[in-house]
């Protein structure tokens, strides 16, 4: 009997072990890098991420002696963009190959500016031709093709730059890829009456929509996309009403004081202000941003470029926004987008050595304010300085890579034309302001 029980137990253990071996198990792969990033600037500039993400130099600001307060050199060295990531794969779901990604760095917002933040966090399902992604990832308007620069802004504000929660569907064959995405703002947000916030997109209910088609032929790739954003800038508004209040004049005993002539009670008039809140029925702010891009790579040479017509694309880090163009008698507002066009091109060359290789890159970008279609009758909500007419940048860089280590330097001169806006946000009396930025990077990949 004991031998029978022992045999049965061993058989059960063997069966369970065999079943456990056949069960699918996910595979995990950690990755990341330690990045030290140093920058020197010749004047005060509009930046983010502790001055590492660069937008533009600020306009001239004269003091009492006529000296420019923004003509101030500064330098910094930080490691907050050090990155940690985890790729997970290996499980099947509904006939698809599944995967997931979690990626973070230390560039979040906090009292120490070293707060761990989510960069990407998504789950993905891959079939033969179809792919579905749900979670936070690169905005599809820029994720399929980025400039080959190592500066943190990666070509912004001349190109879209954003990571955002989304539901994305891709249909892909050998040479064609079609994309449809619904997006929801989180870290990269639009502007409005309460500053930068995702509330304007959330209150509009309709998600941001992006559609794109890409064609590949050998070493050439070309794509066309369009982004449609809907905002509801206000859900309510306040109206201050004034009323006249007549307060009786009384003596020390509380008795009314009479007018000597009329023998009528005397009154003191005062104004009382009462603020009332009303539900807003403003027109929704709808904007359309098309983008066209292409790339070519042959051997060690490569060239890329993109052109974007930006309508209220502040949430994608581009210089644009919207303005109040009509205030109705019932208290509601109407809006129109402030438009711009931005484009960039970069060329790269890879030089192989006995140990490692050099990557030479030259990036050039230009953006131009196109103003507003209607006269502006109220506030302007936008990214960037509110009197910018144009901006250009030419940034050559060199990066040396050997095994896990990379070291490089980039020269980034950025010139902005500032002027005086008219009622449609077109500039006059434009003058140029330039910042010279020199960046260096030391990066260890793992």
How can the largest sheet be summarized?
16 strands, antiparallel, barrel
**What is the CATH level 1 assignment of the largest domain?**
Mainly Beta
Report the CATH architecture of the largest domain: Beta Barrel
Beta percentage is over 45%
Can you walk me through this structure?
The chain is mainly β and about 450 residues long. The model is unreliable at about 1-20 (pLDDT under 50). It contains 3 helices and 25 strands. Strand 7 and strand 8 (about 130-140) form a beta hairpin. A 16-stranded antiparallel beta barrel has the order 1-5-6-7-8-9-10-13-14-17-18-20-21-23-24-25. A two-stranded antiparallel sheet has the order 2-3. Strands 11-12 form a two-stranded antiparallel ribbon. The protein folds into 2 domains: about 25-235 and about 280-445, Porin (Beta Barrel), CATH 2.40.160.10; about 245-275, no CATH class. It is globular.
Brief account:
With 446 residues, the chain is mainly beta. The protein is built from 3 helices and 25 strands.
């Amino acid at each position: 009997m004991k031998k029978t029980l022992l045999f049965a137990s061993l058989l059960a253990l063997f069966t369970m072990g065999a079943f456990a071996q056949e069960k699918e198990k996910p595979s995990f792969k950690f990755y990341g890098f330690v990045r030290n990033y140093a920058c020197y600037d010749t004047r005060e500039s509009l930046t983010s991420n502790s001055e590492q993400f660069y937008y533009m130099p600020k306009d001239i600001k004269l003091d009492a002696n006529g000296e420019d307060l923004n003509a101030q050199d500064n330098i910094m060295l930080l490691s907050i963009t050090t990155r940690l990531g985890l790729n997970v794969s290996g499980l099947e779901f509904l006939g698809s190959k599944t995967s997931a990604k979690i990626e973070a760095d230390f560039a979040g917002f906090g009292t120490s500016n070293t707060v761990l933040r989510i960069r990407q966090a998504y789950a993905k399902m891959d079939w033969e031709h179809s792919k579905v992604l749900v979670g936070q990832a690169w905005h599809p308007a820029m994720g399929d093709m980025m400039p080959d620069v190592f500066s943190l802004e990666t070509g912004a504000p001349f190109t879209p730059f954003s990571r955002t929660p989304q539901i994305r569907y891709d249909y892909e064959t050998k040479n064609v890829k079609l994309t449809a995405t619904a997006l929801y703002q989180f870290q990269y947000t639009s502007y409005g009456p309460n500053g930068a916030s995702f509330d304007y997109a959330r209150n509009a209910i309709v998600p941001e929509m992006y559609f794109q088609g890409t064609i590949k032929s050998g070493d050439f790739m070309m794509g066309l996309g369009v982004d449609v954003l809907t905002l509801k800038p206000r859900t309510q508004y306040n109206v201050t009403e004034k009323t006249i209040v007549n307060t009786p004049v009384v003596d020390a005993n509380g008795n009314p004081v009479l007018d000597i002539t009329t023998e009528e009670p005397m009154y003191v008039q005062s104004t009382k202000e009462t603020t009332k809140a009303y539900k807003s029925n403003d027109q929704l702010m709808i904007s359309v941003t098309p983008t066209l891009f292409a790339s070519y790579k042959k051997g060690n040479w490569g060239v890329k470029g993109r052109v974007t017509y930006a309508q209220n694309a502040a949430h994608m880090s581009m210089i644009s926004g919207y303005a109040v163009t009509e205030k109705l008698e019932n208290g509601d507002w109407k809006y129109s987008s402030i438009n711009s066009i931005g484009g960039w091109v970069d060329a790269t060359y890879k030089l192989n050595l006995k140990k490692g290789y050099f990557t030479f890159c030259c990036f050039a970008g230009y953006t131009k304010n196109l103003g507003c279609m209607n006269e502006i009758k109220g506030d302007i909500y936008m990214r960037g300085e509110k009197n910018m007419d144009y901006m250009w940048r030419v940034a050559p860089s060199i990066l040396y890579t050997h095994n896990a280590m990379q070291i490089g330097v980039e020269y980034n001169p950025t010139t902005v034309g500032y002027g005086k806006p008219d009622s449609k946000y077109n500039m006059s009396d434009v003058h140029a302001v330039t910042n010279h930025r020199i960046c260096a990077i030391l990066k260890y990949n793992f």
